[in-house]
Amino acid sequence: MKWTRSTWRRPRHIRGELVDRVEAGDSIDITRRGKTVARLTAATAPRKRVGANLLRSLARLDALVAAAEVVLLVERIAKSHASAVGTVGCLAVHPNSRNVVPGQVSMTVDLRHPEDDKLDVMEATFRQEIRARFDGRLTCSLTEIWRSPAVKFDSRCIDAVAAGAAAAGYSSLRLHSGAGHDSAYIARVAPTSMIFIPCLNGLSHNEAESSTKEQCQAGAQTLLNAVLSLDRTVGQLPSTQELHVCRNF
Fold it and tell me: Is the CA virtual torsion 140, 73, 92, 48 positive or negative?
């Protein structure tokens, strides 16, 4: 089945969702800025993934060297846009022999930005640079394999998280997440936001992940306060509706 925006329907039993979790990378900002928790305004799912295939067209032209240029190009494009991320995570080199000049390289390019128009500029720049760099030197084909729209969280939920942190005496920071989350999909059908707490050196989803009991307590208390605030705002929920709450510690 091909999923499109029109495919999504608002489930009658979901009133909204709040998620409280430890997160990588972003938590470094929380600690550095002297804040206790972060309230998430947006989540950047894998927005555009492009498959690039480089095939040499001249004798002894190294396709892997050209691929290295692409990696640096992706890094430069991402660094030229605030809040952008660019990643080359997969490379397949052919024939992959230690003493043979690579004749073909297939790779993936992942571009992310919380604003769709900025992401479109990044993609256009990437395609233009590829054509300018490799036209006549080698054959390069680009295939888009994934596209996901920007995800904005619900302002009422964001405000409830901010108020929940303040009510508990905690400072908070507005952030957008550079990673994809389940909440990015829930946000398509119900009001949603997330709460991040710091972890040591921004390392999560790893056995070395470490958050203090006090940090976990701050996240849980903020979540509880936000849920109670939203419940008072929307009034008595019908029996067919519920506010989804999730803790990922």
Answer: negative
Range of the structural domain that residue 67 is part of: 48-147
Q: Does residue 149 have a cis peptide bond before it, meaning omega lies within 30 degrees of 0?
A: no
**Number of domains the chain is built from:** 2
Write the CB contacts of 92 (distance below 8 Å, at least 6 apart in sequence): 105, 106, 107
Q: How far apart are CA 134 and CA 216, in angstroms?
A: 51
Task: Mark whether 232 and 110 lie in a shared domain.
Answer: no
Q: What is the pLDDT of residues 58-96, one digit of tens each?
A: 555 788 999 999 999 999 999 999 888 899 999 999 999
Q: Do 173 and 125 fall into the same domain?
A: no
Same domain flag for 187 and 172: yes
Q: Name the helix (H) or strand (E) containing 167.
A: helix 155-167
Same domain, 176 and 59: no
Phi/psi of residue 193, nearest 5 degrees? -155, 175
Q: Which residues contact 236 (CB under 8 A, 6 or more apart)?
A: none
Sign of CA pseudo-dihedral 68, 70, 74, 77: positive
